[in-house]
Write a structure and sequence with these properties.
Blueprint (H helix, E strand, L loop, with lengths): L13 H17 L10 E2 L6 E9 L6 H6 L8 E5 L10 H10 L3 E8 L2 H7 L3 E6 L11 E2 L3 E3 L2 E3 L4 E5 L2 E5 L1 H26 L4 H4 L10
Parallel strand pairs: 2-3, 3-4, 4-5
Antiparallel strand pairs: 1-5, 2-6, 2-9, 7-8, 9-10
């Protein structure tokens, strides 16, 4: 088995910092068009991913590329799988167990999955477009471990993927450090704003929108 390596400039403590910030704050702080299709959601509440991307493409209804990727994906990476938005059961309990053994951080897929109860039991984070019993064939491999477009968002090996109950974002690796720092500044400002709200201020005042009061 040959596993590829991902050379990524992500800060060493990026996962913990991203968990505190969440995808929405990081998205706003990034200033980038980095949000994946909002229909791609967690299959169980509270799932979270902050990991380096390992992208691959499946032909519609064909999951051979995933099985090949499982022998190459670096430990700690998240599989980001494009299926041309074709919903089928590309992933289930067998691949979940294989992923845990391989140290995979989670799965983000624009297609579908099945065996949801098992994945929930394993607490394996999966974000997908849908859930279906429909299976797949194993016949073709468009790409494994190379840059691609995921729901119109560019994703390359080593890019920062953050996924939680709000959605999925993909930050270019070169922008990750800047985005996390900007997110922390934004979070501090929001915390100060919420304290002022608790003390009696209004959002119109804090956001300097009081001119709209004249429209009453």
């Amino acid at each position: 088995m040959t596993r590829q390596s991902i050379v990524s400039p992500l800060p060493s403590d990026f996962a913990e910092r991203c968990r505190k910030l969440g995808s929405s704050t990081l998205y706003e702080a990034s200033g980038l068009r980095c949000a994946a299709d909002p229909l791609i959601r967690s299959i169980w509440d509270g799932a979270f991913i902050a990991a380096a991307a390992y992208p691959l493409e499946c032909s519609p209804g064909d999951n051979l590329a995933i099985h090949i990727a499982m022998e190459q994906v670096p430990r700690g990476a998240v599989l980001v799988v494009s299926t041309s938005n074709f919903v089928a059961g590309y992933w289930g309990e067998v691949l979940t167990v294989a992923a845990e053994v391989a140290g995979v951080a989670g799965l983000v897929i624009d297609g579908g999955v099945r065996d949801v109860a098992a994945m929930r039991s394993h607490k394996f984070p999966v974000f997908s477009r849908g859930i279906t019993v429909r299976g797949t064939v194993k016949a073709s491999v468009p790409s494994v471990g190379t840059a691609m477009s995921f729901t119109d968002v560019p994703v390359a090996p080593g890019d920062l993927v953050v996924a939680d109950d709000d959605g999925v974002i993909v930050i270019p690796a070169a922008e990750a450090g800047r985005t996390i720092l900007a997110g922390e500044v934004r979070a501090e400002k929001e915390a100060a704003m919420m304290q002022k709200l608790t003390d009696g201020a209004t959002t119109l005042e804090l956001l300097e929108l009081t001119h709209w009061r004249a429209l009453k």
